[in-house]
Amino acid sequence: MTKRLPDFPWDTLADHAAKAREHPGGVVDLSVGTPVDDVPELIRHALAGVAEQPGYPTTHGFPRLREAVAGALARRHGVPGVDPAAVLPTIGSKELVAWLPTLLGVGPGDVVAIPALAYPTYEVGAKLAGASVVRLADGEPPPEGTRLVWLNSPSNPTGRVQGAAALARAVADARAVGAVVASDECYLALPWEAEPVSVLRDEVSGGSPDGLLAVHSLSKSSCLAGYRAGFVTGDPSLVAALLEVRKHAGMIVPRPVQAAMTAALEDDGHVAEQRERYRRRRAVLLPALRAAGFSVDHSEAGLYLWSTRGEDAWDTVGWLAERGILAAPGTFYGPTGDRHVRIALTATDERVAAAARRLAG
Ligand SMILES: Cc1ncc(COP(=O)(O)O)c(C=O)c1O
């Protein structure tokens, strides 16, 4: 069988991870954006509360869950009027990202457009479908033949926020070639120096969800990475098409996770608390990096500090590993990331403080 997927990039970090683990104070792993704070009590309670129920859950998601999604989008992100029928829960967002081109019937001869620096699974999804990939520079319109355009603001890995006007232009450019827009809004709830907006806001969508999908994850905003909890909403006809295939294919969110998601989406307090934890960690790491000679670019929202010492990314990964700090090289996200590293805010306060001390010393 010919190799159709890229190498799994994290394997190439193994030597640096081993080096960082040798540090007498232990490793500070800022390479992966995995949550470290406890799942909030109200969510655990909701999960356990349906543990005895034996029946199949619905692929479409229970009505209360879909209403909770619509409510959260209105309250948290200024997107009122989402029709709960056009909401679909997903088993985390990574599976949807990886399978979206296939589920939409994108295939050989089609193009999937992704940002120049992007979450690697956009490319993986295109390859699983047999489509080709183009990486678009900022503001560059997708070429003819593009069936799907991925947007991601705030961005992984750069933390860049595209304003409403830039997103509206990207939507217009995609619609002009007949492409669906999938907006990965996984970090929308983590604004620092800029206010990210959803693709479903009227000033971006032009008042119509036609051709638009907003992809959301509860992994970061509600510390639910381990539960696998996400959803997609937007154009009702696209969501209906996804639902049809997912029903046949058994892509169903387990009932306890649907219950947990409902509780998480009905409560904004824990999201605010988690945001403050990340804000505190950012307030320690950002000045520590700058004082150690790094420039931090973009990073105005989301979970990452896109940092450079003006040298090859792997040299910086090595420099940090000497200090027991593990970061991801920018090349994991695209060729133009070759002089940056991605530093995640996802470590405990104690580990973040340790990283700051090491950077200072
Ligand atoms: C941009 C982006 N999209 C999607 C995901 C997938 O998140 P999950 O599958 O946990 O919902 C991630 C995870 O880090 C991400 O960074």
Automatic annotation (TrEMBL):
Pfam families: Aminotran_1_2 (PF00155). Its EC number is 2.6.1.17. Its cofactor is pyridoxal 5'-phosphate. Residues 27-359 form the Aminotransferase class I/classII large domain. It is an enzyme of class 2 (transferase). GO terms for molecular function: pyridoxal phosphate binding; succinyldiaminopimelate transaminase activity. Keywords: Aminotransferase, Transferase. NCBIfam families: DapC_actino (TIGR03539). This is Succinyldiaminopimelate transaminase.
